[in-house]
Specification:
It is built from 13 helices and 13 strands. The chain has 395 residues and is of the alpha/beta class. The protein has two domains: 133 residues, Aspartate Aminotransferase, domain 1, CATH 3.90.1150; 239 residues, Type I PLP-dependent aspartate aminotransferase-like (Major domain) (Aspartate Aminotransferase, domain 2). It has a seven-stranded mixed β-sheet, sandwiched between helices. Strands 9-10-13-12 form a four-stranded antiparallel β-sheet. A two-stranded parallel ribbon has the order 1-11. The longest helix has 21 residues.
Length: 395
């Protein structure tokens, strides 16, 4: 028998599996569990996109594409960005097709990070960015956004950098609409952030994967203002309910794209060809496929927000994505992991502990309302029963 060797990359050895995934797997073993844990659309991929994939299989699109992806798909992605958000990219040398937004994040951060560079990580935040920064031997430094209802301001960035005078700040992560909080930014806020980041000479890794899911306002990309300093990430997972197809995009300057292409090449060679052909169809003939999903998500958001607000959860009203990030009522234990485990055990409802999104998430919980109204009604009934039971309260 071969014994496990402990002489591995020490950075990898210290990285933990996502709390989100760990918790989801743990509670899945409980019978009759209602899960609002993972951030995945409950809608199916549109039929015309599936038909395009079937056609691609029949036409033997089973070989490698170029490293950057099909030019047709890169052009469709560039056109989509231009029409929807006013961003203009040359499909030839400013767009990369990636294996989902996750690979896009890894490629972007690996490209910009040198050892000991500091990256501003607004927190609470989707955890995937953190180990990628660490793998590049850079430093994720966490800026607490809870002090301002999870909205980043230029003053917060100025103060954070001033408080760390010995650090070499290379960049900042922006994710909006945000996971886990659901907050997003209006035009004036985005412009002010752009000016601040440019003043501090920061690369902006802007993850805008939820850009099609905004409520009450149109998404504004920071790339409109500082295109040369922005590495823009997007994809088809949320806009077209294509999580399993793994199609993401990187948009950047010609010079930055050329560097990222080298990292991307050695990570994955190229994204799956059939999925790329489906992506062309999604962006060309399904440019507004997200609209009916968005309308339904908004109804669900309003329902869940109203119920949880009435139960005493403090919530910064989400204006995008499909998450509620809620402060646990003061008369319950504030250890979010203990709270969520107790809720799952007693009332068979699974939501994610706030600590899954960094230390700044302690005392909060996240739930995904990417679920049917029937499922959400059942979930809110179970949450209500738990909250209204005096035995579960600590004070």
């Amino acid at each position: 028998m071969t014994l496990f060797r402990d002489d591995l990359n020490t950075t990898i050895a210290q990285i933990q599996v996502s709390t989100i995934r760990q918790f989801d797997e743990e509670v899945s073993a409980i019978p009759d569990m209602v899960k609002l844990t993972l951030g995945e659309p409950d809608f199916n991929t549109p039929q015309h996109v599936k038909d395009a994939a079937k056609k691609a299989i029949d036409e033997n699109y089973s070989h490698y594409t170029g490293m950057a992806g099909l030019l047709d798909l890169r052009q469709a992605a560039a056109d989509f960005q231009a029409k929807k958000y006013g961003n203009h990219y040359d499909a030839e040398d400013q767009v990369l097709v990636t294996v989902g937004a996750t690979e896009a994040i890894a490629t972007a951060l690996t490209t910009i990070c040198n050892p000991d560079d500091a990256i501003i990580v607004p927190s609470p935040i989707f955890p995937a960015y953190i180990p990628i920064i660490q793998e590049a031997h850079a430093k994720p430094l966490f800026m607490d956004t809870g002090v301002n209802d999870f909205i980043i301001t230029p003053q917060m960035i100025d103060d954070f950098i001033a408080a760390h005078p010995d650090e070499h700040f290379k960049g900042i992560i922006l994710n909006y609409p945000n996971n886990p909080t659901g907050v997003t930014y209006v035009e004036a806020e985005v412009k002010a952030l752009a000016e601040c980041c440019q003043r501090h000479n920061l690369w902006v890794v802007s993850d805008e994967i939820y850009s099609e899911l905004t409520y009450g306002s149109t998404h504004v990309s920071i790339a409109n203002y500082i295109p040369d300093e922005t590495i823009l990430i997007n994809g088809l997972s949320k806009s077209h309910a294509m999580t399993g197809w793994r199609i993401g995009f990187l948009f950047a300057s010609k010079e930055m794209t050329a560097q990222m292409k080298k990292v991307h090449q050695y990570y994955v060679t190229a994204a799956t060809t059939v999925a790329q052909k489906a992506g062309v169809e999604a962006l060309r003939n399904g440019i507004d496929d997200a609209l009916p999903m968005r309308n339904e998500y908004q109804k669900r958001r309003d329902f869940v927000y109203k119920v949880m607000n009435g139960l005493g959860f403090k919530i910064a009203r989400p204006t995008g994505a499909f998450y509620i990030f809620a402060k646990i009522p003061a008369n319950f234990q504030q250890d979010s992991m203990a709270f969520c485990k107790d809720l799952a055990k007693k009332n068979h409802l699974a939501i994610i502990p706030g600590t899954g999104f960094g230390e700044q998430g302690e005392g909060y919980v996240r739930l995904s309302y990417a679920a049917s109204m029937e499922k959400l009604q059942k979930a809110m009934d179970r949450l209500t029963a738990y909250i209204e039971n005096p035995a579960n309260q600590t004070a």
